[in-house]
Structure formats: C-alpha cells, structure tokens
Design a protein that fits this description.
CATH superfamily of the largest domain: Transferase(Phosphotransferase) domain 1
Helix content: 40-55%
CATH architecture of the largest domain: Orthogonal Bundle
Number of strands: 13
Order of helices and strands: HEEEEEHEEHHHHHEEEEEHHEHHHHH
Number of domains: 2
Structural class: alpha+beta
Strand content: 15-25%
Strand order of the largest sheet: 1-2-3-4-5-7-6
Largest sheet: 7 strands, antiparallel
Length: 366
C-alpha cells in the first residue's frame, strides 16, 4: 500500500504512526493496529480494515473494522450521536447484533474531536454482497435459506424492540468493562469546550425502553464466520416510539430520514410522518420484509415497481404498491409473510415476534 506523505501527516494528528515507508499504524486506547485499507467513507466518517499487531487485549493477527468519526469544533450533535451509537453497540448483547470491541475519544489540536469505534470485521461481507453475487452468477437463495436468515435477523430485532430480552447483568458488565468508553477526568476534559459533560455519555443508556434500527437493509446485515446474519451499523438506532405533536418535529424527522435512511427500505410512516401519529418498532419489520424480498428476487420491491410500472419509489411506498415476479421457486406461504411485513398500516403489519412465529411455523412445515 503506497501512502503519500501528506496522508501520513494527516493520520499523525490522530494517534497514527507509520513503521517504514508504506505501513501505517493506529492506536486505540494504547493498542496498536496496522491499517490495511479503507472500507468505506462518508462526509465525516471513515471505516478502515485493521490488523492487530500486539499481544494485548486482542490476539495477534485478528482483523477489525475501525469507524473513525470526525466531529468538528462546536458540533455538539455529532458528538452526541457518536456516543449514542457506542452505547447501542453495548446495550444489545445478542449474537445477531454487532457489538463494539473498543472505543475512544481523541481531542484534536483544532478543537475538533475524533471518535474511534472498533468493531469486528466480517470477512464474508453483507447480505447485499450475497445478493449481488447471486445476480452475477445467475443463482438464487433457497426458501429454506431465506427463512433461516430472516429468523436470525428477527431474533436480533426482538432484542432491539423488547427490553425484557436484554440480559441486564451482561449489559452493566459491558459498560463497566475495559472496552467501555473512558469516562475519567480525561474524557471530561475532552468535553469542556462544549456544553457536553460526562453525563452526556450516560444520557442514552436506558435499558428499559424499546429501540428500533430505522435503517435496516441488506448492506447493514453482515455475515458472521458461521454464516449467521448480524445486524450492523447502529448509527441510526434510537428510541423506537416517537409521537409528533408539532410541525417542527415532523420536519426534523424528515431531514433526519433523508440523511440516514435508504428510501427503498424505509417504512412509509418514516418517509411521510403525520401530526398526532406515533412511529414504533414496526418500521423495522417493514424494512426486514423489503430485505427478505430482495433476498428472494435480487431487487427491492419498490425498485422493481419503478422499473416495471414506472411508479416513483416514494409514491409506491406510500401506497404499498409492489408485486412478485412470476415464479415457482418460493411458496405462497413465504409470499404472504412478505405481504404482511410490507403493509402500509402499521396496525396490520406483523410485529417482530409475530413474524418470528410465522417464519418458524413455515420452517417446521418444510
């Protein structure tokens, strides 16, 4: 990997160093990792593939994904959002939800803050990559495999949606472990130039409420080494139940959705919230239904509707307009489950628990 001197200097500002002409390293809470390559990037966010090089908390040679979030000076919202994301990685102790390995806040010389979130690396990629490979190879995912994957994802969603499904003791242990975000005097010092203080770090930690992911889609569902799906990217995860009683709240949500949600998988109540209505956990069931459709047919239902009939995606979503390709590969039972997930009225839509029950019945009947 050929690394320009300018990039080496840039990284040196954020606890990075390089050993030799082309190797670049980074430290997270004193643990040293080699940067292998850039995996993804956004406006202020970069994700890198790392390899551990020291026998510390991690076995030498392990691979990780590092999410690096740059929070400009005075940008309180971005710091708060990053801290909320870290908390979410720690709250949900479930094999089908990704967990944080380590995290750190770094104060920049210009007053900005850089937040590192160290996550497991999934060498098999995401469900979206599986879908893409099948399209290229002209293959498909069997009904049994679609059911298996969706059951596991549903199990993860239930942990998000139902606080009773979270092991409280394990959560407290995780927050107090050596991998938890440092909240000592050093951390408080990092927050002194903003209205934030250490209490902000704890403000998101409510174990007794329901959460929803709000941006569930094939590219956010990762494949573990044992080929089970793992819900990833909890940056959009927050309190599930939200009621709107002002136009300002509606506009704030619409702006947030436009920045954080992929329209093809977003529920209609997220895309077009209305006054005096409540958004709940079933937004994730809609997204999972669209994801299941994509697993089956290689395209999201409303992308296909736009291609086949010319209906704009947003309009099709609001009316629930979609159809299934003519095929004999999948049973009517599975198609009906998809229909009940992608139902415009949340009251008629499955809950995650109801969806799990129906999938299990269908799986057993095979």
């Amino acid at each position: 990997m050929n690394i320009p001197d300018s990039l080496k200097y840039y990284f040196s500002l954020y606890c990075c160093d390089y050993g030799g002409t082309n190797d670049l390293f980074i430290k997270v809470n004193g643990n040293r990792f080699k940067i292998i390559r850039l995996l993804a990037e956004g406006d202020l966010t970069f994700v890198y593939l790392l390899k551990s090089v020291e026998e510390t908390l991690y076995r030498n040679g392990n691979y990780f994904a590092l999410k690096k979030i740059t929070c400009p000076f005075g940008d309180i919202e971005s710091v708060s959002n990053a801290l909320q994301e870290i908390d979410c990685y720690k709250i949900f102790q479930n094999p089908h939800i990704v967990s944080c390995v380590d995290s750190q806040i770094i104060q920049g010389k210009d007053g900005s803050k850089t937040i590192y979130i160290l996550l497991p690396y999934f060498k098999y990629g995401s469900i979206q990559e599986t879908i893409n490979r099948n399209l290229l190879d002209g293959t498909y995912i069997s009904e049994q495999e679609c059911i298996r994957l969706t059951i596991d994802i549903c199990t993860g969603l239930i942990c998000l949606h139902d606080p009773k499904k979270r092991p409280y003791e394990d959560i407290e242990s995780n927050f107090n472990s050596s991998t938890a975000l440092n909240t000592t005097e050093e951390t408080e010092g990092l927050l002194t130039d903003t209205p934030l203080d250490a209490s902000t770090i704890y403000s998101h930690r409510d174990h007794a409420i329901s959460y929803s992911h709000k941006n569930l889609k094939p590219s956010n569902i990762l494949i573990a080494d044992d080929h089970t799906p793992v819900i990833g990217d909890l940056s959009s995860c927050s309190k599930a139940t939200v009621t709107f009683d002002s136009e300002t709240q509606l506009e704030t949500l619409k702006e947030w959705v436009s920045r954080n949600c992929q329209i093809e998988y977003a529920a209609p109540e997220l895309l077009n919230p209305k006054m005096n209505t409540t958004i709940g956990t079933k937004v994730d069931v809609w997204s999972l239904g669209c994801t299941l459709y994509s697993l089956m047919f290689g395209i999201s239902p409303f992308e296909r509707e736009e291609q086949i009939n010319g209906t704009p995606k947003r309009a099709a979503i609001q009316k629930g307009l979609f159809s299934f390709p003519q095929q004999s590969r999948y049973t009517q039972g599975l198609l009906e489950i998809v229909n009940r997930c992608i139902t415009v009225d949340p009251a008629s839509r499955y809950s995650a628990r109801e969806l799990l029950e129906q999938l299990t019945i269908l799986q057993v009947s095979k």
